[in-house]
């Protein structure tokens, strides 16, 4: 309340009024010095400042003349605290017009009087620029310098001005992803299942890839669907007749999580040839969510593939080939049980081998993936083997999908069989 009264008095003073004479100004004690200075700051009562014994000159305006008059009146009031002095704003402006003297001997400082005057003399703050500057953290700068010294290309340099790329935090995010994948990855569950096996799972995945393509869903939806299926099957033993129901319920959940316009339950009923009712799908959806404790945020291979392709400086052909191998990994149970980051790195490595890119593995890829070339040989060999047998396989939905021009017809490329033969010697 006292602050508002002081502010009202100052506002009236600036409009040309005078302070009320009935309320004399009381001298503040030593303990109230901070409060008094704060009130002076609110009232724009300023101190005169002279740097290095020389007056700092600045063109004065009518507002500056008014501040100078106020400061002079405040100095007179300090000499005789018991007397209340009135400060006529209009009269002060007439005594020292701004047009006669363009360079006054003193400069009016309207900063807070709490600041030590000695600090002001030693340091001058630069004028803030109106345009936004790209300022990187010290950690980012030191990390970038160390990468250059080790021959690692800064793949985020081009996105430094894009706030959505989160250049300062992207590496920390992927470190968290790699830690989190070890906690949430599904365990090897096929031995605990009574009625289903790896071949039945492959048939389900092959069908879900076709459904995903017909519904024109996002790539993230397919990878999240497979994560939900594998996590649920690692916790619950299911019958053979229920396996397809688990698949469509998992895709329904993933669509709701990833898609803007998710398919409806009736769409899944039609696509499954009415094998299940609406009540069965919704009941299974609820059972899966409760079993997973409603935890669906998980770093799938797709998350890592996007980052690793950036480190590989890929083109469209490289992207299609990498995703072809990544989806082949979803189809094969023996590959799908690896960590998502290892699957993604192996897919990039197998794609580079198939397209005969040189070098097959660089320091930049090694840094961003966290894997040496020797760590990828076994998984990449299995992917190349799946590619070589994909044309003759009965489960050829994925092969037909990536044989189309919209995916660059990468499935029709010659498999890296010579690479696979060379790996037999290395492994």
From TrEMBL:
GO terms for biological process: cell division; mitotic cell cycle phase transition; response to gamma radiation. Residues 1-36, 88-132 are annotated as: Disordered. Gene3D superfamilies: Cyclin-like. Residues 299-416 form the Cyclin C-terminal domain. InterPro entries: Cyclin, Cyclin-like_dom, Cyclin-like_sf, Cyclin_A/B-like, Cyclin_C-dom, Cyclin_N, Cyclins_cyclin-box. Pfam families: Cyclin_C, Cyclin_N. CDD domains: CYCLIN_AtCycB-like_rpt1 (cd20567), CYCLIN_AtCycB-like_rpt2 (cd20511). PANTHER family: CYCLINS. This is Cyclin B1. It comes from Phalaenopsis bellina.
């Amino acid at each position: 309340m006292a602050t508002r009264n002081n502010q009202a008095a100052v506002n009236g003073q600036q409009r040309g009024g005078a302070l009320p004479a009935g309320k004399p100004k009381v001298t503040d004690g030593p303990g109230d010095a901070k409060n008094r200075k704060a009130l002076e700051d609110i009232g724009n009562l300023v101190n005169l400042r002279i740097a290095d014994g020389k007056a700092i000159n600045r063109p004065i305006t009518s507002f500056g003349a008014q501040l100078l008059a106020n400061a002079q009146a405040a100095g007179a009031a300090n000499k005789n605290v018991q007397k209340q002095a009135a400060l006529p704003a209009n009269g002060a402006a007439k005594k020292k017009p701004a047009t006669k003297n363009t360079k006054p001997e003193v400069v009016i400082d309207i900063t807070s009087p709490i600041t030590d005057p000695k600090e002001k003399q030693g340091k001058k703050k630069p004028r803030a620029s109106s345009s936004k500057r790209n300022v990187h953290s010290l950690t980012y700068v030191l990390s970038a310098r160390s990468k250059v010294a080790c021959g690692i290309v800064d793949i985020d340099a081009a996105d430094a001005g894009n706030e959505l790329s989160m250049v300062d935090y992207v590496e920390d995010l992927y470190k968290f992803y790699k830690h989190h994948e070890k906690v949430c990855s599904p365990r090897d569950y096929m031995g605990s299942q009574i009625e289903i096996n790896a071949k039945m799972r492959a048939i389900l995945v092959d069908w879900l890839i076709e459904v995903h393509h017909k519904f024109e869903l996002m790539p993230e939806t397919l990878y999240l669907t497979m994560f939900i299926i594998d996590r649920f099957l690692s916790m619950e033993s299911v019958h053979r007749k229920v396996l397809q129901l688990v698949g469509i319920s998992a895709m329904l959940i993933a669509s709701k999580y990833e898609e803007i316009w998710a398919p409806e339950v009736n769409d899944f009923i039609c696509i499954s040839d009415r094998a299940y009712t609406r009540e069965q799908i919704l009941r299974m959806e609820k059972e899966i969510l409760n079993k997973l404790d409603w935890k669906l945020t998980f770093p799938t291979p797709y998350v890592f593939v996007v980052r690793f392709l950036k480190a590989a400086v890929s083109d469209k052909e490289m992207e299609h080939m990498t995703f072809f191998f990544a989806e082949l990994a979803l189809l094969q149970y023996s590959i799908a049980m690896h960590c998502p980051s290892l699957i993604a790195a192996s897919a990039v490595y197998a794609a580079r081998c198939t397209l005969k890119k040189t070098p097959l593995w660089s320091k930049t890829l090694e840094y961003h993936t966290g894997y040496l070339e020797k760590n990828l040989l076994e998984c990449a060999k299995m992917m190349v083997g799946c590619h070589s047998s994909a044309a003759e396989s009965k489960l050829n939905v994925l092969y037909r999908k990536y044989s189309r021009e919209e995916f660059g017809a990468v499935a029709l490329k010659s498999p890296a069989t010579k690479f696979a033969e060379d790996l037999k010697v290395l492994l």
